[in-house]
């Protein structure tokens, strides 16, 4: 693969969407100014779930607020995220990376480990197998985990209005999810914690410092 995949992870309200927009803008300016030796073909912003038209339909099923009689079971949820990912990897990520793009993706496999593994407490080995099938073995080149305490993240989301099905889960669920991201940050190289608590400009600066180092490795002569 000639391109590079940068993934943003974190609990709800951690600021992924905000930071992806900041990074995209910064990268566009930087790549135009500096003429790195092997600059990417372009920058693509995408997300899971919902980065394809099939994925949009899966996303609707996954995130619609549940009622007592009509809720997605944990195992269905796991398989739907895997289906969304398989579609997205094949239709979007692999072609973009093959053609040399720098891809910024809002969530990837670490979310399944954190939400379905730690949050729903499904089998981690099964999740790893499903992730490998769905990604065809494609891993991220850099994962930025926006680390934020659960109460702050949920507070930011509450200020935004009606909660979706996963946001509706209780605080203990979200604490387990947070622990799931923390466990992955400890065990994996290229999985980097970024303090998500300061204002968005300060968070963006931390991210730019990290990404600069990687750009040098990836694109300098
Ligand atoms: N999920 C899963 O369970 N398993 C999986 O495998 C995958 C996903 C891939 C996706 O929903 C859901 O799917 C998600 C996990 C689950 N759970 N939920 N719910 P989504 O894509 O709709 O939601 P999200 O990924 O959680 O993103 P979000 O809700 O849009 O939050 P965010 O992107 O992290 O944050 P934001 O939109 O940039 O900011 C949130 C608010 O905070 C907003 O009002 C901002 O203006 C504000 N904000 C942002 N940064 C700051 C700072 N630094 N200070 C103060 N306020 C800020």
Summarize the model shown.
This protein is of the alpha/beta class. It has 8 helices and 5 strands. Bound molecules: ligand Z5A.
Explain what the structure shows.
With 221 residues, this protein is an alpha/beta fold. The protein has a single domain, classed as P-loop containing nucleotide triphosphate hydrolases (Rossmann fold, 3-Layer(aba) Sandwich), CATH 3.40.50.300. It is 56% helix and 12% strand. The protein has eight helices and five strands. The protein has helices at 16-34, 53-63, 74-98, 109-119, 124-135, 150-158, 171-187, 200-219; strands spanning 4-9, 43-47, 102-106, 142-147, 191-195. The longest helix is centred in the middle third of the chain and has 25 residues, at 74-98. The relative contact order is 0.21. The model has no long low-confidence stretch (mean pLDDT 92). The structure holds ligand Z5A.
Biggest sheet: strands, sense, closure?
A: 5 strands, parallel
CATH class: Alpha Beta
Heteromolecules bound: ligand Z5A
Q: Would you give the CATH topology? A: Rossmann fold
User: What series of H and E elements makes up the topology?
Assistant: EHEHHEHHEHHEH
Structural class: alpha/beta
Helical fraction equals 55-70%
Rg computed from alpha carbons, rounded to a whole number of angstroms = 17 Å
CATH H-level homologous superfamily name: P-loop containing nucleotide triphosphate hydrolases
Could you say what the CATH architecture is?
3-Layer(aba) Sandwich
Instruction: Determine the strand fraction and express it as a percent band.
Output: 5-15%
Mean pLDDT: 92
Q: How many H/I helical runs?
A: 8
End-to-end separation? 18 Å
| Poorly predicted residue ranges | none
Whole-number count of domains: 1
